[in-house]
Design goal:
By secondary structure, the protein is mostly beta strands. About 10% of the residues lie in helices and about 50% in strands. It has 2 domains: about 100 residues, Phage tail protein beta-alpha-beta fold (3-Layer(bab) Sandwich), CATH 3.55.50.30; about 525 residues, TonB-dependent receptor, beta-barrel domain (Maltoporin, Chain A, Beta Barrel), CATH 2.40.170.20.
């Protein structure tokens, strides 16, 4: 099946699209509609908000309400068998509220009165549902809930950590195409190109690299190998990008105390929707997208979606060219009244020629001041990458709000690349050619079960799970494909002059396998009406094997804690504090030959969160301190060479880096028709203890900005101009310098984007995006011999979208 998927992706997509776009034979209904289904309920008396959440989860129906509506109201509870409408009536007795069923099958809470809900646009607010929440179609710059932090479905205000969500509307408004673009638009995240060759940059947060990525909440390993990173996903198949900053070992396992990035895929819809998108931009940038979803039977118990996307473009610098093709298909089937099976596949192919911009500097670290269109790579340089992913999950709803989910992901990643590197120095610059291949694959399995329960007369929530992942990396190639390095004149370089050398792919090889498994759990206890406490822990087992020499190391039963509390000051504001952890195994040994303890990361965080305008706007202010301890340090007091190793010195676990900072974010609707998000981050990560005493007190990674401000907005004009939407984005940061040379610097800079869209009718719209509108010149910095490149100059893109 894998080979068929590889050979015939277009045929597979066309078959599914034919079903999604057309009529199908009717099928017998397999389930009773949720709003007429009678179920058994046992909800204790107590605060109204948690009781409504438990009821909606048990009934399997969406319910929309705000904190203002429930406030300090209480309910006498609910016991017995009810259909949803009768259950709502009993729960809401004497509260002055009623639940009204909307056309989409969900319910909205309103004050008792004539047709109030039906005459008012439905807001995106606090939602309780048995289905994952999506941002597509909401038009919002904020999300009602996420579960990346704890596996509990919580609103941003209920989550005791810094959370950001890049919604589908933001992705489309800003014209974001890749994960690199997304990271540059999210509060507190940093994308760097300088230290990696290839198609994707490296990602960081709170002063530390991001080492894991999630797909629909399931942890997967990233493809970085120290030379290049292969994880630059395209955003067309995703509904949103969720980010939890700080240590997040509870749900992600091992890693750094930086952030968890969760890419949430688009899902099928029960109603037909077909979207055709075409765009054209500077440097021959052309894109075509087809996105189709529909129910595949009359009962709508089988639903599907397919996305086909092609992009062909020149880079802004000479010679280089990209072509990307994507196919995505997903099916969702109601196997029974309370059981849903989802299966899907994603195929992405990237073909890049002409290399990536990579400049050396002068000996004093100053720029060569080459034109932004310059490219010192060779025309024969290339990067070919194919990613194949298949996935499946089963969701089951037990009743009374309890549900379980089992998810499986299998991913294959193949890279074949040849690129140029530099040596020598000013006036004697030379160029070499490197060639590598990657044949990586991984498998992730995650299973969870959870729901509400009653204790001491109050309603609480719990989630427990198990996970396992295995990543196999086979990287091989030639670090010196050209026997005699080429002499380079950066000011008179001809990328077509040299011929492609033959590569010896057996010169270098590394084969490794990482196995990681864990058992985890979290619980949210409603201590009093205003106070909720979340506690959790994860126990992990980790094993690394070097398949080349059959060496490796293991970590058993590493416990990762989680604790947080949220105190509601009023219906809109809450104070919170949290203590979270994560670990990262290391291979260094001490003088006794014992493996060093894992590097431990701890995140302390406190702040205040707000929810305004019926939940349409979220805000947060956080202060944090992140410590990474047990980092390997050279043990100069021990023997040399270190016994039983090839190392000059043994190590000891005594290194420490501490990061402190502040984060502020506001996202959502400021007024009707006006969406915005804005975030400011200050972070300073410094050495506290290190082998080199001169490092103590210095910045841990000087090329990461300490100050960042990011904002984006979209406004629909009023009155007769309401077919127009206008907006923009802004990203600013302070000056940085290279960790390898303080002479290589980039001053502070600001990049501005603008966009405008016109809606011709219900089907057709046109959008103009201008990136780097003021054509700011800036660099991604590296080291003296390379890694320095320009940021993208000003570019304009026109996008035409037609919805059937």
């Amino acid at each position: 099946m894998q080979n068929q998927f590889k050979r015939r992706p277009i045929a597979c997509a066309i078959s599914l699209l034919m079903c999604l776009g057309g009529a199908l034979p009717p099928a017998q209904a397999q389930s009773t509609p949720a709003h007429t289904r009678a179920q058994q309920f046992a909800i204790a008396a107590g605060p109204l908000g948690p009781a409504l959440r438990q009821f909606a989860m048990t009934a399997g129906i969406p319910l929309t309400f705000t904190a203002d509506q429930t406030g300090d109201k209480h309910t006498t509870g609910l016991r017995g068998t009810f259909i949803p409408q009768d259950g709502f009536a009993e729960l809401l007795k004497d509260t002055g509220l009623e639940a009204v069923r909307m056309d989409n099958g969900g319910y909205v809470l309103q004050a008792v009165g004539p047709q109030a809900a039906r005459e008012t646009a439905l807001p995106t607010v606090t939602v309780s549902s048995s289905r994952p929440l999506t941002t597509e179609g909401t038009g919002s710059y904020t999300a009602a809930a996420t579960n990346t932090a704890t596996r509990l479905e919580l609103s941003p205000r209920e989550t005791p950590q810094s959370v950001s969500v890049l919604t589908r509307q933001q992705i489309e408004d800003q014209g974001l195409v890749t994960l690199d673009d997304a990271v540059q638009s999210i509060t507190g995240l940093v994308m760097q190109k300088g230290y990696y060759a290839g198609n994707s940059g490296s990602f960081s947060a709170r002063g530390f690299p991001i080492t894991n990525m999630m797909l629909d909440g399931v942890p997967t390993s990233m493809g970085a190998n120290g030379t290049f990173n292969a994880d630059n996903a395209d955003l067309v198949i995703y509904d949103r990008v969720e980010v939890v900053r700080g240590a997040n070992g509870l749900t992600s396992g091992s890693g750094n105390p930086s952030a968890a990035i969760n890419l949430v895929r688009k899902r099928p819809t029960a109603e037909r929707q077909v979207s055709l998108t075409a765009s054209a931009g500077r440097w021959n940038d052309y894109q075509l997208q087809l996105d189709a979803a529909n129910a595949l039977n009359e009962a709508k118990t089988l639903r599907g979606r397919a996305v086909v996307s092609v992009q062909d473009k020149d880079m802004f610098y000479d010679v280089a060219h990209d072509r990307t093709e994507q196919l995505y298909g997903i099916l969702e089937a109601d196997l029974a009244r309370d059981t849903t099976l989802t299966v899907g596949a994603h195929h992405r192919k990237l073909e890049h020629t002409g290399g990536y911009q990579d400049f050396p500097t002068r000996d004093d670290g100053s720029s060569l001041d080459l034109p932004r269109s310059a490219n010192l790579a060779n025309a024969y340089d290339f990067w070919d990458q194919t990613d194949k992913t298949v996935f499946a999950d089963v969701d089951h709803r037990f009743g009374k709000g309890w549900k379980a989910r089992v998810s499986v992901i299998r991913k294959w990643q193949d890279v074949d690349t040849m690129f140029s590197g530099f040596g020598g120095g000013e006036g004697r610059t030379t160029q070499n050619t490197q060639a590598y291949k990657l044949d990586n694959q991984q498998r992730s399995v995650d299973a969870t079960v959870g729901g509400p329960f009653s204790l001491l007369g109050r309603t609480h929530e719990v989630s427990v799970g198990v996970s396992q992942r295995k990543a196999q990396n086979d990287n091989f190639g030639d670090w010196g494909a050209r026997a005699t390095p080429l002499a380079v004149d950066p000011f008179n370089w001809n990328p077509h002059a040299a011929t492609r050398p033959a590569a010896n792919y057996q010169r270098w090889r590394t084969q490794s396998t990482v196995r990681e498994s864990g058992v985890y759990g979290s619980a949210r206890f409603s201590i009093t009406d205003p106070l909720a406490v979340i506690v959790g822990a994860r126990s992990s087992w980790y094993e690394f094997t070097n398949e080349g020499n059959r060496t490796g190391y293991k970590v058993a039963r590493e416990v990762t804690p989680y604790a947080g509390l949220v105190y509601d000051l009023d219906a809109r504001h809450a104070l919170y504090a949290s203590w979270t952890g994560i670990f990262q195994p290391q291979s260094a040994v001490d003088v006794n030959g014992d493996l060093l303890k894992p590097v431990s990361g701890t995140n302390y965080e406190a702040g205040v969160k707000g929810e305004y305008f019926d939940g349409l706007l979220n805000a947060s202010l956080a202060v944090f301190q992140v410590s990474q301890e047990n980092r390997a340090m050279t043990d100069l007091n021990g023997p040399s060479p270190c016994p039983g190793t090839a190392s000059t010195w043994c190590s000891r676990a005594a290194g420490e880096v501490e990061s402190k900072g502040i984060e502020l974010e506001v996202s959502g609707q400021l007024s009707p028709g006006w969406q915005a998000t804005a975030g400011y981050t200050y972070v300073a990560a410094k050495f506290v203890s290190d082998s080199d005493a001169a490092n103590i007190g210095k910045l841990f990674d000087a090329d990461l900005p300490r100050h960042q401000f990011k904002a984006s907005t979209s406004y629909r004009l009023p009155g007769d101009l309401n077919r127009w939407r206008v907006g923009g984005s802004l990203a600013a940061q302070n000056a940085v310098y290279s960790s390898d040379s303080p002479n290589i610097r980039q001053g502070g800079y600001t990049v501005v984007g603008l966009h405008a869209a016109y809606q011709f009718d219900d089907h057709l719209s046109l959008r103009l995006n201008v990136s780097n509108a003021f054509d700011k010149t800036y660099h991604q910095i590296g080291w003296t011999a390379g890694g320095n490149s320009y940021g993208t100059p000003r570019a304009a893109t026109v996008t035409l979208n037609y919805k059937l």
